Amino acid sequence: MGDVSDYDFSTGDAGASHSTPSEAGQIRVGGYMMIKEHPCKVSHVSTSKTGKHGSAKCNFTAIDIFTGKKYEDIIPSTATTNIPIVKRCEYSLVDITDDDFCSLMTEEGNVREDIKLPTYPDGFGREIKLAFETGKPLMVTVVSACGTDQITAFKEEAPPK
Fold first, then answer.
1. Is 91:30 a contact under the CB 8 Å cutoff?
2. Judging by DSSP bridges, how do beta strands 101-105 and 87-96 pair with one another?
């Protein structure tokens, strides 16, 4: 039998789920939910009343957070649905390679080189590249959900004080 010191427990992400369960009736506009296995931000919710054929239903309209595609779903308000775990991180943009991969640095100095320039919305990746080529330091916001990371925003980095 192995000793506890033989194992690395420094991270808690060993096969952790990308979503958590929640009752459909608890989801509000501006919240997140999974529709057809896509992480989406809810833009409209309407609830029908209980009828003689069952429980109240929630009609959701939501936008995919990575592609901007609109999805709709109708779920009984007491049914369980999945809520994606969405994280936002800010990085300094250090470099952009010829094949559009970005070198990103955290405040602690850790470097990531596995994120490509975004393809959605059209021209956004080109806009980031042009801003980077001016020589000004840029900060990018990376949204992570369901195993996907994508740059969703950028701004000029404030000079250090």
1. no
2. antiparallel
Q: Are 131 and 151 in contact (CB under 8 A)?
A: no
Q: What is the pLDDT of residues 41-87, one digit of tens each?
A: 999 999 988 877 778 899 999 999 999 999 999 999 999 999 999 99
- The pLDDT assigned to 33 comes to 96
User: pTM of the full predicted structure?
Assistant: 0.79
Retrieve residue 147's tokens. Answer: 């195993």
- Residue type, position 45, single letter: V
Q: Which amino acid is at 61?
A: T
**What is the Cα–Cα distance from 83 to 23, expressed in whole angstroms?**
10
Residue type, 151: I
- The β-bridge partners of 54 are 51
Cis check: omega of the bond before 121, within 30 degrees of 0: yes
Q: What is the DSSP letter of 51?
A: B
Is the C-alpha dihedral spanning 112, 116, 120, 126 positive or negative? positive
